[in-house]
Design brief:
The chain is built from 10 helices and 9 strands. It is of the alpha/beta class and 237 residues long. The protein has 2 domains: 145 residues, TPP-binding domain (Rossmann fold); 79 residues, SIR2/SIRT2 'Small Domain' (2-Layer Sandwich), CATH 3.30.1600.10. The strands form 2 sheets. Strands 3-2-1-7-8-9 form a 6-stranded parallel beta sheet, with helices on both faces. The protein is globular and about 55 Å long. The structure holds ligand BJW.
């Protein structure tokens, strides 16, 4: 029998134990860096060097990061489902590539990817693993100074929304892992799932802003809760 389709939304908490900062926890990025100064296109237009510096530092940190047990467990779950003809959609708000490094075959990056640059001159996206700055040249059009991190800032439209809506509506279980449930449209996915009669589960360090919207909840560090849950799921096959 084909296993049920799973839609898994992940957030910063998934990568926290890999040493990548979360945003809204007490020691999160937005407590030291104001969103208005670093995560809007207006901030980038006002002070591109400051914004590029913030993302350059995070990219350097990411270059030294490794997937943790939760990334590995989700990649293994996707593989086990796929082997039985099923589908696990891994939709992440994270701009890191730790799920891919863990072996996930498909990851939907709704807030973009830190290891990609977007050229505002030619609209091309290119792989990018070093610092970005005014002297950076677009590998596609050759123009200098038009590259920004390929991430989705506040007020911008998240990526792959048609695919996400299609996969979410077709799913049979919705699971949110390590996300605060405070940034839309991702924070609204649990309500879409519930409206379609789907069971929903929150896996987080502690109850999120959205906790009451979920039918099942599991709390603790992702490196413990996620492998325990995926092991139980794979055991149902
Ligand atoms: C652990 C753990 C461990 C810790 N184990 N767990 C008013 C009402 C409603 C909406 C709006 C509004 N005003 C404006 C809006 C829209 C706005 C929005 O949502 N604003 C809210 C803040 C109110 N949204 C947008 O602008 C989005 N675009 C948009 O809406 O377009 C229109 C549209 C409409 C309809 C459909 C489609 C489109 C764009 C949002 C872009 C967000 N961008 C960022 C930056 C990306 C680049 C970067 O990385 O710098 O994305 S902001 C930041 O927040 C980042 C994250 O992906 C995102 C979510 O954060 P996340 O993952 O939830 O992290 P945290 O830190 O908040 O939470 C971590 C959680 O992990 C916590 O719960 C911890 O407990 C837990 N945790 N350690 C397990 N070890």
């Amino acid at each position: 029998m084909v296993p049920p389709s799973l839609f898994i939304l992940t957030g910063a908490g998934l990568s926290a134990e890999s040493g990548l900062g979360t945003f809204r926890d007490v020691d999160g990025l937005w407590t030291s860096f104001r969103v208005e100064d670093y995560a809007t296109s207006e901030a980038f237009a006002r002070d591109p060097l400051k914004v590029q510096g913030f993302y350059n530092a995070r990219r350097r940190n990411l270059m030294g990061a490794s997937p943790n047990a939760a990334h590995m467990a989700l990649a293994a779950l996707q593989k086990a489902w796929s082997a039985r003809g099923g589908r696990v959609t891994l939709c992440t708000q994270n701009v890191d590539d730790l799920l891919e490094m863990a072996g996930a075959a498909e990851v939907v990056h709704m807030h973009g990817e830190l290891k990609k640059a977007w050229c505002l001159s030619c609209d091309g996206r290119s792989a990018w693993e070093t610092d970005l700055g005014p002297g950076a040249v677009c590998p596609q059009c050759g123009k200098e100074g038009g590259l920004r991190p390929d991430v989705v800032w506040f007020g911008e439209f998240p990526y792959h929304m048609d695919l996400i809506t299609q996969r979410l509506e077709a799913a049979e279980l919705f699971v949110a892992i390590g996300t605060s449930g405070s940034v839309y449209p991702a924070a609204g996915f649990v309500r879409t799932a519930t409206a379609r009669g789907m069971p929903t589960m929150e896996i987080n360090l502690e109850p999120s802003d959205n906790a009451q919207a979920f039918s099942t909840r599991s709390y603790g560090p992702a490196t413990e809760t996620v492998p325990a849950w995926t092991k139980a799921m794979i055991g149902t096959l």
